Amino acid sequence: MKVTMTVNGKAMSAETEGRTLLSSFLRDGLGLTGTHVGCDTTQCGACVVHVDGKPVKSCTVLAQDVAGAEVRTIEGMANKDGSLSVIQQAFQDHHGLQCGFCTPGMVMSSAALLAENPTPTEAEVRAYLEGNICRCTGYHNIVKAVMAASGQGEQQLAAE
Predict the structure, then answer these.
(1) Is the pLDDT of residue 158 over 80?
(2) pLDDT exceeding 70 applies to what percent of the chain?
(3) CA distance 122 to 141
(4) Cα–Cα distance, 135 to 86 (Å, whole number)
(5) Neighbour-count burial of 126, counting CB atoms closer than 10 A to its CB (0-12 exposed, 13-18 middle, 19+ buried)
(6) Which domains are seen in the chain, by residue range?
(7) Is there a contact between 137 and 47 (Cβ–Cβ < 8 Å)?
(8) CA angle 94, 82, 13 (to 5 degrees)
(9) Closest alpha carbon to 48 in 153, 131, 119
(10) Does the pTM of the predicted model rise above 0.85?
């Protein structure tokens, strides 16, 4: 079957089987390998993308079920001039990544959080990112990065 969706602002389509997961469709069908697959069971969050503006773990959604939708992947997070988005830059500046495997999902989840709640507390950041697993950072620098991206920086972390 042919599945078509708007990915990162561009209409894209590919032939795929009906049982193809969105994560596989993006990676194998469209060549967008920034979406990582870590568990295939919605446990790790490495595969988070936005579907019609909402965060979705793409390893458990069928591509055919989001046909016609607006999908945003980590490749679509950069600014139009190719520079890093505020969130991506904050992850870099605050060492919110180490091996980088969880980073695409963390960035996508963080973007969804900040769209929903532009000035979250540290506790709210930690609670929101609960569905994303990082085995390297201990989360502290990820939280610092999200707080910085929200414009709150170290002051809010120190206050809590």
Answers:
(1) no
(2) 96
(3) 11
(4) 24
(5) middle
(6) 2-76 (3.10.20.30), 86-155 (1.10.150.120)
(7) no
(8) 115
(9) 131
(10) yes
